[in-house]
Amino acid sequence: MADCNTCPSEGTCSTDKQNTCEIKNNPLNKVKNIIGVMSGKGGVGKSTVSTMLAYELLRNGYEVGLMDADITGPSIPRLVKLQDKRITTTSDKGMTPLIAPGGLKVMSTNFLVDTEDSPVLWRGPIIGNLVKQFWTDVVWGELDYLIVDMPPGTADVAITAMQSFPMTGIIMVTVPQDMVSMIVSKAVHMANKMDVPVLGVVENMSYISCPKCGEKIEMFQYDDKSFMNETEVPILCKLPMNKEITNISKNGVIGINRDITNEFSKVVNKVINFKE
User: Fold this and answer.
1) N or C: which end of the chain has fewer CB within 10 A?
2) Which helix (H) or strand (E) holds 33?
3) What separation, in Å, do the N-terminal and C-terminal C-alpha atoms of the chain show?
4) Is residue 7 situated within a structural domain?
5) Domain range for residue 110?
6) pTM (2 d.p.)
7) What is the DSSP string of 248-266?
8) In this prediction, what percent of the chain has a pLDDT beyond 90?
9) Can you list the alpha helix ranges (DSSP code H) found in the chain?
């Protein structure tokens, strides 16, 4: 757990807490594990991986919530087929997350704005406070896992989430390009400095499969061994670039074939079996 020694605001923070920046959750909530899904760079499929992880945990019989902490670029509602839904009422107990097909509990900024394409024109401190409210003011109830789709990069919101939530661990998402892996390495080192375990990496868009012979065709020249040696983080699975994954927002996770699901099960097993 990150403490005040790892906080960027150490020495200037006005909090009365001596040992931790963690904030108290809603007393109605009992969340056993929080898994952040993170990348140093946008556009690598982080939200897709978050959605796949949440649904695979559901399939394994767990109670799961999915928090869209990418406040200014929320894509989770579309991925779980809730893009037309809005939260219009709240109670003194807090906000109730929406329920996606399959029973997944979901909270996103897009549920709080007028339309799906309404921009969120807020500065950093306000965005950080909203992420905290998604933890303290949302009635998640009893969850085995809360998956947090983090914004790209290593700035305010990522710091807020790691400092405020009792994170169990982080799953990193990358694509097989040296420039991207360099930026993801920054996110890995950030998590290490914040004392949040990095469980492993999902390499997305890793290859394409020939539709005739099934041969895996790697589109990029990339040395994944050097990345693993530098970060000391294992690559848990490699996902292809194909229509089934890119069309999750249209067809849902159920449309993914078993070969991909079996490959992704390595990520799910790592999350389930992780012991700090």
Assistant:
1) C
2) strand 30-38
3) 11
4) no
5) 25-273
6) 0.86
7) HHHH-GGGS-HHHHHHHHH
8) 37
9) 46-59, 76-79, 124-136, 156-164, 178-193, 224-231, 243-246, 248-251, 258-273
